[in-house]
Amino acid sequence: MKIALLSDCHGNIAALEVAMNIVRKIRVDKVYFLGDMVGYYPNPNECLDIAKSHECIMGNHEYACLHREYASLFNPAAKNAIEWTLNELTADNIEYIKNLPDKLRNEEFGFLMIHGALTRPFEYIRDKHTAWANFKLFKEYIMFGGHTHIPAIWTQGESGEYDIDMVRVQDDFTFFIDSKKRYIINVGSVGQPRDGNPDGCFVIFETGDKSVSFIRFEYPVEITSERAYKAGMDRFLCERIFMGM
């Protein structure tokens, strides 16, 4: 079975449409969205409408739309984007995000999906200590997540719980699951990559040969930037997607 895992679309429908076209061409059997369909860019309803046909997790930007006190902790550009998003979301989509779960499990193939972390819901897993703390909190052999916007692979080796390594991924890359290890896999960001590569990113997990492929794709960044600019969004948001930051 081929399973697509996508995260952090952030209202960037131009990127999401390209990603979903690739998913269809690959003939994926199942699609999961790992949160943050909204925020930053000006097509949240269109992104959520695509998510509704699949399974989706609540990200911190969906949570911020429901909890203003949490949104107040965001940087000014992100906070303003949440306010803009709240004015745009349909009543149906507000109800939809209210009912999103904070995690999903695929019992058939034994993997867990979250947005940020298990230690704290929206903590970033970006160092060995945080990865180790999260490995302690799940039994599955793989946990997929997003949130950092940086594709990465964390491994826990067979020599013990402190045997933690990390590999960052920038380009198209495929690796095979080692049954003697456990994994935390960050699937990157569809709509706002932050690894220095402006190309969108998502993951295909092939359950047959246990391969995990990071898919990088170009999309019309200028369209998203222009739409965000016309919507009155922060200039930094309009420019950062050209640089992958």
UniProtKB/TrEMBL annotation:
It comes from the Bacteria. GO terms for molecular function: phosphatase activity. GO terms for cellular component: cytoplasm. Pfam families: Metallophos_2. SUPFAM superfamilies: Metallo-dependent phosphatases. InterPro entries: Ap4A_hydrolase (IPR050126), Calcineurin-like_PHP_lpxH (IPR024654), Metallo-depent_PP-like (IPR029052), Pesterase_MJ0912 (IPR011152). Residues 1-209 form the Calcineurin-like phosphoesterase domain. Belongs to the metallophosphoesterase superfamily. YfcE family. This is Metallophosphoesterase. It comes from Peptoclostridium litorale DSM 5388.
